[in-house]
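As described in the Methods, two query proteins were run sequentially through the folding procedure within a single session, without resetting any intermediate state between them. The first query and its resulting structure tokens are shown here.
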Amino acid sequence: MGRGNALVVGVTGISGHNAAERLTRSGWTVYGLSRSGTCAAEGVTPIQADVTDAEATALALAPLDVTHVFYCTWSRQSDEAANCAVNGAMLRNVLRAAAGGRLQHVALVTGLKHYLGPFEAYAKTPMETPFREEQPRLPYQNFYYDQEDILFEESERHGFTWSVHRPHTMIGWALGNVMNMGVTLAVYGALCRETGQPFVFPGSPQQYEGVTDITDARLLARQLDWAATTPEAADQAMNTVNGDLFRWRRMWTVVADGLGLEPAPYPGHPDPLEPRFHDAQDVWDRIVKRHNLQPYPLGTLASWWHTDGDLGRTTETFADMSKSRRLGFLEYQDSSRSFLDLFDTLRTQRIIPPLNA
């Protein structure tokens, strides 16, 4: 007997793709919603809809008997006011379209900007680390806060339970994602091998020397699966990180070795990726041709701006997992393997060159 009918919103993204794969393996009937109507996860029924359009969303979901929604998408806007308006409307459209049947639970994926603030006020008033779920909201507009309030309101109106999941930087398989550090670093490594540039850590001294963590998209998927059917997780917000801590000064050596490179000495200051590689499409085309790689444009693989922002932070950033542990989620993921497993997959899928090339 199946576990339920799951709707994964944003199935082409890093969190949505991994959630859909996990849920399918766990025995769910899975529908994957995206604007394109495509889905690379095996066993998932693709659903096409633009969730900014309430009517189109309602029409797309009407034939489905959805019991659980996993909301794993967002739309980047020009400022936080627009982020709040657009992303809030998207979530509300999905919830109202799905709530007419047997909807039991909605899982909302947000992130650590809950504690750090939106992009335009990012890390101006960060909370004390490790970040804990009970810390109060920051005094800034934040579309994560608006989404939570919409989720709470619709839950009360329609009677479903909810969970909020707050991952850190996600590492995992997905292409075309606007916030994919793992793929960006893999592409950075391939460009360095091709051009002879040093594989130098591009971020701030605070990130290079400080303590941090990450979220493997596979671990997030396991937490989403667990929370959807665990009574103790109902109506809870939970951090979602791997469970180990590291400093980039060590992890950079792991990443370099996984890409067949020597790590360059850290120069003691940021060396951002975007100005170095924003016009590197011709170099990437050469790499793709020589190694017979999949012909993805560089811009669909590398999120230079996001990795620069993430690794350029001047504040300490890591999250506490005690709440999840108390509730019964005891999963753990080695962060070194998060990167190395992804690099192996990228080579297998012919996205980056083989190690012996």
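Immediately afterward, the second query was submitted; its sequence and tokens are:
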Amino acid sequence: MSTPRSAAILPLGRILAGALALLLERRTAVLHAMTLPWVIHAVLEVWLAVAAQSAQAALPALLLLRAAVYVLLAVMIHRLILIGPSAVPAFGIAPFGLRELRYLGWSAAQFLAAAFVLLLASPLVAISQPIGLAVGLIAAAWVVGRMALALPEIALERVVDLTSIWNLGRGAGFGLGMIVIGLPFATLVFLPLAMSGNLILRLISMTGSMLFVVFALAALALAWRHLDWLRRPGADPAAPASVNLGPDAARGLLEVDVSGTFGARDFGHVASGDGLLPYHGRLKGLVITLNGAAWEGSERAWDALDTLLAHLGFVRVHHEHLQRVALVAPGDWQSLAERLGKHFAHAEFRTFAHDEVQSARAWCANET
């Protein structure tokens, strides 16, 4: 990840609107992701209602179980936004593995960092309690927000380090704090229902709170993607959408045509490549065409292409279905063929010149 050259401006309104739009568009997958934590939480609420004493005795184990399924939910929502609906298993039933342990560990590190910041603000609290608390909470939200950028990367199974994550969030700390602290804090509106003795009202409170958390997780994933693109050399997040997906179901191909640099306005767009699989069963090939001087075969161009491939959702989920991958690009990409091929472990990889598009398609479709 590149070291930032300047402070970033996080378009919070656009991020929130984009998160809401994607959640509505992928609502079936959202419901699947929420199913397991909702059921476990509902069972706990019912148990507390009908047998409070035995439920209280088992409460530590139940809370631990609930924390685990909420980590699964968080990972699935990040992957749903960044990869696509295919990343969410049926009814949210997925194994709790190393990825989830890393996610839980980083979340714990955020909590400890926030506690440390609040401890540093304690002298201000002694001087003026309202001002000291406000300063401490704002500072803690800023730190937690910047650290939270690691969570979507962990969900994508990337290796993260604090220095890179901290640099990535430079200038966007307060916006990120609003996402990871402000949105979940809004669940307090459901507190009166949660304190009610009525089981139905408590279940409504639980559902509303979970939806707010899902919204915050989706917004964090989009904020990470925006900042990740923004920090890449040559990326222009203000540029118009530059990626076109052209599925050819008859030949079993998917064509990804990139004009200029890949910008942040392409949020979620590349994930639509998953739609080809149900119609053809198995992709024979993927043709990636890079247009423009920005894609000359240099290290800067490699960084940009590496980022593009990392965000092609169907590649991460369905790469084992691909048999052949062709790259049509200006400049000399032959020297990078081995590095590019690492994104497609189960496929043959070949580069083509710009005047060989038809040859690339025929080769990917195994017609030659």
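The first strand starts at residue 243 and ends at 248. We note this only descriptively and draw no conclusion about the first query from it.
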